[in-house]
Amino acid sequence: MNDSNSDRAATAATAQTLPPPAQVVQMAGGLVISRAVFAVAELGIADYLKDGSRSSDEIAKATGTHAPSLYRLLRFAAGLGFFVEDADKRFSLTPLGAALQSDAPGYARSTVRMLAGSTAWSAWGEFLHSVKTGETAMEKAFGQPIFDYLSTEPEQASYFNEAMIGFHGAEPPAVAAAYDFSGIRRLVDVGGGTGNLLTTILLANPELKGMLYDLPHVTAEARSQIELKNLSERCEIVAGSFFESVPGGGDAYILSHIIHDWNEHKCLQILENCRRAMPDDGRLLLVEMVVPAGNDFHPAKFLDLTMLTFTGGMERTEQEYAALFSKAGFNLTRVVPTESPVSVIEAKPI
Predict the structure, then answer these.
(1) Torsion angle of alpha carbons 338, 339, 342, 345, nearest 10°?
(2) What CA–CA distance (Å, rounded) separates 283 from 4?
(3) Coil, strand, or helix at residue 242?
């Protein structure tokens, strides 16, 4: 363990020994960290340090910021492990900081700009409204649902799309490895976005054919991604809304992080459309986090509050998925865990 890692481990250990009031205050202070990391990402500081160390004055000139104030941000971010400051007050990147470069794998910069940017900041400001009413904070803050909002804000929509890849980036290979797709002839990805999950599954299963189904403006972007991976002959692209209908022709239908976005009424619309489209011996596969029992932290519990705030959806336990499936004409048959936080929740028509 290097000195930097040792320091952070010591800090974490110290936090555990703080008295409860101090621990509570430290948790509440997380907003400072969130906004500081956002500022680093928004200003593109990691890009300016790609070719070597620079002084805070040089970075301030490049980013159009107030040099003394920027230095204070850089010093704080160095304490979080993003930069290293030398004796001449020049800053260089660490691996953590390099992850915020615009072209770094994982889309961390876009994810931070989405999670901690002005849109999310305004919505989280109305979080208590969600807790009191069950309504989305997003609609309280902006007067419209999040997907309607994103359709009018292309820059935010771009951050959102890349954030989804960044946030869920480890899932497609984990799903492809954990679930046996060998018995499926044609897999329909409902709400498949730009095809990240479907193309991963197709590449791992050369005999499988696919269909990607999403809104027209999404499928336009998906087409280039599918062509780039030389899968055009094996993957059909169909445009439409899963609230209106779902195309037939598949013996299995997969929905990744779709059902958690919506309230129960809309979830049943989607699932019932899938049921009408598939044969009686078909399979429904949901890729979602499953809320575990017990008091331990789990990413599903974090995501659940995010859904409450932004979409009106929710994360569910296995029992809650079984109840939802039953209302839509399915039986939950099994839950297949993966090496990522998500599981493949399998159901078959009743």
Answers:
(1) 0
(2) 49
(3) coil
pTM for this structure? 0.85
**Residue 285 β-bridge partners:** 254, 346
With 0-12 CB in 10 A as exposed, 13-18 as middle and 19+ as buried, what is 16?
Answer: exposed
Burial of 13 (0-12, 13-18, 19+ CB in 10 A): exposed
How many Å apart are CA 327 and CA 174, to the nearest integer? 29
Q: How many CB atoms lie under 10 A from the CB of residue 273?
A: 20
- Return the residue matching tokens 């930069």: 83
On the CB side of 129, CA atoms within 13 Å amount to 15
Antiparallel, parallel or unpaired: β 252-256 and 186-190? parallel
Amino acid at 332: L
The listed range with the strongest mean pLDDT (16-20, 96-100, 117-121, 159-163) is 96-100
d(CA 335, CA 233): 31
| Rounded CA separation 76/335 (Å) | 43
Closest CA to 112 of 123, 122, 101: 101
Contact 104/98 with Cβ under 8 angstroms?
yes
Q: What is the pLDDT averaged over residues 22-47?
A: 95
Q: Is 129 a catalytic residue?
A: no
- On the question of pLDDT at 332 being above 90, the answer is yes
- Go through the domains of the chain in sequence order and give each one's CATH number: 3-98 (1.10.10.10), 118-165 (no CATH), 168-349 (3.40.50.150)
Residues 80-110 as b/e (b if ≥16 CB within 10 A, e otherwise) read eebbebeeeebbebbeebebbbeebeebbbb
Catalytic residue among 66, 260, 265, 298: 260
Average pLDDT, the chain: 93
Query: 135-193: per-residue pLDDT in tens?
Result: 999 999 999 999 899 888 888 888 887 887 777 778 999 999 999 999 999 999 999 98
C-alpha 298/C-alpha 310 separation (Å) is 19
